[in-house]
Specification:
By secondary structure, this protein is an all-alpha fold. The chain is built from 18 helices and no strands. Among the domains are: about 80 residues, Cytochrome Bc1 Complex, Chain D, domain 2, CATH 1.10.760.10; about 110 residues, no CATH class.
Length: about 375
């Protein structure tokens, strides 16, 4: 499977023992920052320019906290005494550990592209399981968010020239760019999860920004994780022109699979809760009575979407929403042709229904677990 639970709700007592980082102060106040916080971008992305989300709200922060706790023998021993399922948390926490830095994105990406992408996202990083979720935002909100991008100014450079493409292609391979980045159907072997497919570079960056970024990423954004490759100005222009003028290609993703038939064996609530609902669904569709009043963004509203009132943490809550679950799983399978790609695939435009598929921002639940859910529902949702 390519997904993992997006959030763990740690006990307040444990936070008191281990400590919780205080909220950071925004260094870029104003409407764009307020819009980014309202859209909850800071729950998945790191950004020094945004307030730091609390540990019990932040997907990225909570998962990083679990990993950091597990790396400390003393802290892990404390966790094991407080959380009987701590080893399961360690096993399941895979997502939101390699997230793009939002400050670096806002420095270099074109505002017009950012607006289109936020309105209809697609998978940019085919080796990263989690993808940008579809947000329920108005045109005005999208305009405000887009105004936060394109912050960095860079020198003007010569326009792309076909004469530099061959040299740029040789440099792209010879300097090791293919160790991190895919490039459409041209280069598909890279496996660094956080590195984007450079087939989208010409859409996301201006030609001048691309050269500046290739030369010295940290000169554009101090939080950039891409290393400086030591290229000359002429070499950086050649690599840029290879990316700008070469057709990257890429195969269309396969058609979505229909939902599998239910398993042909008895399925209990304990099994389906352990394998599916408690592992992923409950983190957005929480029961407030079990979580100090928190209901989660799926239940109480979030990421621009209105509250659904759907609670998937208890058997009673799942039973109340059971007729909606198969359709939500099927919608996510259809959206995967745009949202969840493998190296060498290109995103397809899909007709977006009013409500997104589930799980939001993560790959579809695989056939085995889907068949488990469908069997439990078909069997009358037994205890």
């Amino acid at each position: 499977m390519r997904w993992a639970p997006p959030l763990l709700l740690p006990a307040l007592a444990f936070l008191a023992v281990l400590g919780d980082a205080p909220p950071a102060q925004s260094t870029a106040p104003g409407a764009p920052v307020e819009a980014l916080v309202a859209a909850q971008c800071h729950l998945c992305h790191r950004a020094a320019s945004l307030p730091k989300a609390g540990l019990t709200e932040s997907c990225e922060g909570c998962h990083a906290w679990i990993r950091e706790t597990s790396a400390s023998p003393a802290a892990r021993a404390q966790a094991l005494t407080l959380f009987p399922l701590w080893p399961r948390y360690e096993e399941n926490v895979q997502s939101y550990l390699q997230v793009p830095d939002l400050d670096a994105a806002m420095a270099r990406l074109k505002p017009d592209w950012a607006r289109r992408y936020l309105a209809n996202p697609h998978d940019l990083r085919p080796n990263l399981p989690e993808t940008m979720p579809r947000l329920g935002l108005s045109a005005e909100e999208l305009d405000t968010l887009a105004s936060a991008f394109g912050r960095a100014s860079v020198p003007a450079r010569p326009s792309p020239e076909p004469a530099r493409v061959a040299e740029g292609g040789a440099l792209f391979v010879g300097r090791g760019c293919t160790a991190c980045h895919t490039f459409g159907g041209q280069h598909t072997a890279a496996a660094l999860p956080a590195a984007p497919d450079l087939a989208f570079a010409r859409e996301r960056l201006s030609p001048d920004m691309a050269v500046a970024w290739i030369l010295d990423p940290k000169s554009v954004a101090p939080t950039a994780t891409m290393p400086t490759m030591g290229l000359s100005e002429a070499e950086a222009l050649a690599v840029r022109d290879y990316l700008w003028l070469t057709e990257p290609g890429g195969a269309a993703p396969p058609d979505p699979l229909p939902l599998p038939p239910p398993l042909d064996r008895p399925v209990s609530w304990a099994e389906v809760q352990s394998e599916v609902f408690g592992k992923i669904c409950a983190h957005c569709h929480m029961n407030p009575a079990l979580n100090e009043g928190r209901a989660g963004p799926g239940n109480d509203g979030g990421f621009g979407w209105a509250a659904t009132g759907i609670e998937l943490e208890t058997r009673e809550g799942v039973m109340a929403a059971a007729e909606l679950i198969p359709a939500a799983l099927l919608r996510r399978r259809d959206e995967a042709r745009r949202d969840v790609l493998h190296p060498g695939e290109r995103p397809l435009h899909v007709v977006r229904p009013d409500l997104p598929g589930m799980p939001l921002g993560l790959p579809p639940i695989d056939d085995e677990d889907t068949a488990l859910v469908l069997a439990w529902i078909a069997q009358g949702m037994p205890e």
